[in-house]
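Submission sheet (multi-component)
Chains listed below:
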Amino acid sequence: MSRPEIDVKGLHKSFGDNEVLRGIDLEIGQGEVVCVIGPSGSGKSTLLRCVNLLEEPTKGQVFVGGTELTDPDVDIDAVRRRIGMVFQQFNLFPHLTVTENLTLPQRRVLRRDKARAARVAAENLARVGLSEKADAYPASLSGGQQQRVAIARALSMGPEVMLFDEPTSALDPELVGDVLAVMRMLAQEGMTMMVVTHEMTFAREVADRVVFMDGGVIVEEGAPEQVIGNPTHDRTRHFLSRLLDPAMADVEEDAS
Amino acid sequence: MTVGTDTGLQPRRKGLSRRQKRRLSRGAQYVVFVAAVVAFAAGADWGRLQNQFAQWDIAQQMFPDVITLALKNTVLYTLSGFVVGLALGMVIALMRLSSVGPYRWLAGIYIEIFRGLPALLIFIFIGVAVPLAFPGTEIVGGTYGKVALALGLVAAAYMAETIRAGIQAVPKGQMEAARSLGFSPARAMISIVIPQAFRIILPPLTNELVLLFKDSSLVLFLGVTLEERELSKYGRDLASTTANSTPILVAGLCYLLVTIPLGFVVRRMEAKAQEAVR
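Outcome: structure written.
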């Protein structure tokens, strides 16, 4: 593994008195797919949002493709063009059609001409299997379709890295599969991906590495069959048992 | 004892039942209404009223000037004031949301002042105080410029608050999505947030247009030439030359000709916006 594509060093993040991340070190190599799992409030989404600086880290460094994002003098807009991000709530632009959602960022940010932007948009819509929705407005699409459009929008910018923040958590269960299929395709094409998710099947099958976070630190990481199949830490075991078999969980005292 | 059969499960009614009370109350309201109408119809001097307000020949001689001149000027004043107010209001709204403290304070002070002052005072200020304070200065556009400025200054304060609320009503995820795609904050604001904000605030902005339409009557206090008269001034002038109130009534109808359809449009838009939220 040469230079890591994503490199997080000694990352801390606090919201007021609430310390959400307490020293995270994480390297993700080129073409690697890393799934971040953990209970809610463990800081996994905050970690992901720190990687493209949607959250400003309190301490520590973040490098993507060798550029330090945490450097105050870095052109953050230029770096973000290389980092695609997919949100839990899709965040498509509701006042634009599907195609315009894909072309407007290319034209405004990358200064591509109309024809090229339209071509790239059509290609990426085809990749996520939604060519026939090109002229629809986001509100008329199902959640799964919206999320695939959001992925296509990110891909249209030609990113080197893709970040996914619980991309299937807001979807009806029967729509999850379509989105995961698109993500699996991306992984097979060699995209570097960091995925915060609760989809253990996806993590097990697609991820090169699984990172388990709890309480703002990385508790355990390794190959999926190890972390998910044979976890060494109690906290990981506990989390997985509750996630994989929620009907069998006991009533617990709230730790907080 | 007859009361002995009461089980306590059905409490005995005392006085009137709920239904009886309701019927009585409604009946009383109708009686008052009819009495008021009858008193008005009997008491009013219909002949005199018609003489004062419904002189057909006077109304006739107002046309076409009341439309081609007076209503046209009212619309022109309103639109120019609206444009100035919108541009200024947008700047103030963005200042209010700025991360730079002094901008926020300045915008806040502006809004407080111009929302608190009567529009009439602003008109007098522009029409009288400014020319006296700065002799030789001309506000571009003559009367039209002055009206646009006076109406715009007042409208901007209200519109700034509306626009700010609209911008804040756009979900945060929109800005985040735009930033994550590499938009700069300014570009994200212009391309993504503001277009959505305007959809949200279209009804209140149209309402503001109706308010401005009425406030344009304050031009009266600027001193205008014959060609610059708008509805209120035109109606008042004609009312005094003919010694009759019919022109006032006609001018009033001309206002309603515009404000009622606009109000209808606003309600339609609000209903539609409600639907879109689901």
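Remark: The longest strand of chain A covers residues 18-28.
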